[in-house]
């Protein structure tokens, strides 16, 4: 196994299984947490990630296949998607290509939400470009829910993350959202809810 990334929560390894390249995502203990609580949090996130990944695959969303779950190591072995991350490539694309990516993102999130799945961390480092589709990874904060409020908060993370990572293309958020609402019936409601939540927040700030 070869360590390829060390994130705040997990170590990502590249390995092989029956000659196929795989990714092993292992949630590492956090020293500052009480041990028992830490184990519980890591177990919950590992389980949630595997569960929602599986559901997302069933729903036809592009995401890695799971090959193994190890609840001792808190590790998930999954398909390696050898694809560029939106985060790393979108800024240098010509504008029509950027718009195409924005639409693909809106569609991918819509297909997740329409199946009652919320990602929880929709930043562009968790989105990979697979031809004409976006593949989603990193389901550690994901939830299975039909609550539109949760979906609105998914979109808020997406919007805020996009604005800070890709501030030169802030306007593309609109493009993402219009593709989102065109792709499923409930999308419009979710966007209205997001707007309302933001209105409340603005109101709170002023006060
Ligand atoms: N299945 C996968 N295929 C290809 N690359 C992956 C895969 N899973 C993770 N990665 C790479 O590792 C990085 C971190 O993994 P991620 O699941 O997002 O963990 P973190 O919680 O640390 O953000 C991703 O941004 C991506 O570059
Ligand atoms: Mg990530």
Structural commentary:
With 207 residues, the chain is of the alpha+beta class. The chain folds into 2 domains: 78 residues, Phosphorylase Kinase, domain 1 (2-Layer Sandwich), CATH 3.30.200; 121 residues, Transferase(Phosphotransferase) domain 1 (Transferase(Phosphotransferase), domain 1, Orthogonal Bundle). The protein has 6 helices and 9 strands. A hairpin with a 2-residue loop joins strand 2 and strand 3. Helix 4 packs across helix 6.
Task: Record the SSE blueprint.
Blueprint: E1 2-6, E2 10-17, E3 20-27, H1 35-58, E4 66-70, E5 75-79, H2 86-89, H3 95-114, E6 117-118, E7 127-130, E8 133-136, E9 143-144, H4 148-165, H5 172-183, H6 187-206
Antiparallel strand pairs: 1-2, 2-3, 3-5, 4-5, 6-9, 7-8
The chain binds adenosine-5'-diphosphate and magnesium ion.
Termini Cα gap: 53 Å
Which strand order does the major sheet show?
1-2-3-5-4
Question: How large a portion of the residues is in β-strands, by DSSP E?
Answer: 15-25%
**What class do helices, strands and sheet pairing give?**
alpha+beta
- What's the structural domain tally? 2
Q: Let me know the number of strands.
A: 9
Q: What summary fits the major beta sheet?
A: 5 strands, antiparallel
Poorly predicted regions are: 203-207
How would you sum up this structure in a few lines?
Helix content is 47%, strand content 21%. It is α+β, with helices and mostly antiparallel strands and 207 residues long. Strand 1 and strand 2 form a beta hairpin.
List keywords for this structure.
207 residues, alpha+beta, Phosphorylase Kinase, domain 1, Transferase(Phosphotransferase), domain 1, 2 domains, 5-stranded antiparallel beta sheet, two-stranded antiparallel ribbon, binds adenosine-5'-diphosphate, binds magnesium ion
């Amino acid at each position: 196994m070869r360590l390829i990334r060390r994130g705040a929560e997990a170590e990502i390894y590249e390995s092989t299984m029956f000659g196929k390249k795989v990714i092993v995502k292992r949630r590492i203990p956090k020293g500052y947490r009480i041990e028992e609580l830490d184990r519980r949090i890591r177990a919950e996130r590992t389980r949630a990630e595997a569960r929602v990944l599986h559901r997302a695959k069933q729903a036809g969303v592009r995401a890695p296949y799971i090959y193994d779950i190890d609840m001792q190591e808190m590790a998930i072995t999954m398909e390696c998607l050898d694809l560029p991350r939106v985060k790393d490539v979108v800024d240098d694309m010509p504008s029509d290509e950027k718009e195409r990516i924005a639409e693909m993102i809106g569609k991918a999130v819509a297909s997740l939400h329409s199946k009652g799945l919320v990602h929880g961390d929709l930043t562009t480092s968790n989105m990979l470009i697979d031809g004409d589709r976006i593949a989603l990874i990193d389901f550690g904060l994901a939830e299975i829910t039909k609550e539109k409020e949760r979906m609105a908060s998914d979109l808020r993370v997406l919007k805020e993350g996009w604005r800070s990572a890709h501030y030169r293309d802030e306007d593309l958020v609109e493009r993402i959202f219009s593709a989102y609402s065109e792709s499923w019936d409930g999308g419009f409601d979710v966007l209205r809810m997001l707007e309302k939540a933001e209105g409340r927040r603005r109101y709170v700030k002023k006060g």
